[in-house]
Amino acid sequence: MNELTRLLGSIQCGDKTAFAELYEQMKKPLFTIILRITRDFVLAEDILQELFLKVFLSPPENIKNPRAYLCKMAHNLALDSVRRQKPEDNLDELDDSKHQVVQPQEDFETKLDIENAIMKLAQRERIIVTLHLNGGLKFREVAKMMEIPLGTVLWSYRKAIGQLRNILGGVE
Predict the structure, then answer these.
(1) How many angstroms separate the CA atoms of 132 and 134, rounded?
(2) 167 vs 41: CA distance, rounded Å
(3) How far, in Å, CA of 48 to CA of 74, rounded?
(4) Structural domains of the chain in order of their starting residue, each with its CATH number
(5) Quick one: angle between helices 139-146 and 150-168, nearest 10?
(6) CA atoms of 62 and 55, how far apart (whole Å)
(7) Which of 53, 79, 109, 126 has the most crowded Cβ, counting Cβ within 10 A?
(8) How big is the CA angle at 91 (ends 124 and 75), to the nearest 5 degrees?
(9) pTM of the predicted model, to two decimals?
(10) Each residue's pLDDT tens digit, 87-127
């Protein structure tokens, strides 16, 4: 039994410490997935809170891959939120400051450059890269989650990585 499975089982028994551990382990990858889909920091925080509230109130049972389950949940909640937005809500999408994530870290400029480069990718490529790198999912899991062929996921990932190299290398 892996650590996440153990934590979810403990949460089902009402263990708040297990919930805190799950939150600490998964908040960054799940937040990153949500943020890259919604492109809105505040909305991403709200969706992350909603996700963990759902897990706390109704923990999933008998999940083979809890990491993939939680990533899928984050993915679906973020997509639902984006779909619910009115077109006029997206008018401020040109404001680059909204897409920048402020994190106090040593290599802040590099991380900010990478985040800005990722935001320039098409949504599908951005989601694939995020699910694989930040979510820790295998390409097969990403394909299953997004309901697209494995070959498409692999091709899109390679394409996105090439675009990121070009953007970060100053070619684009």
Answers:
(1) 6
(2) 23
(3) 7
(4) 1-87 (1.10.1740.10), 104-172 (1.10.10.10)
(5) 110
(6) 14
(7) 126
(8) 30
(9) 0.72
(10) 655 544 444 444 444 444 456 677 778 888 888 999 899 99
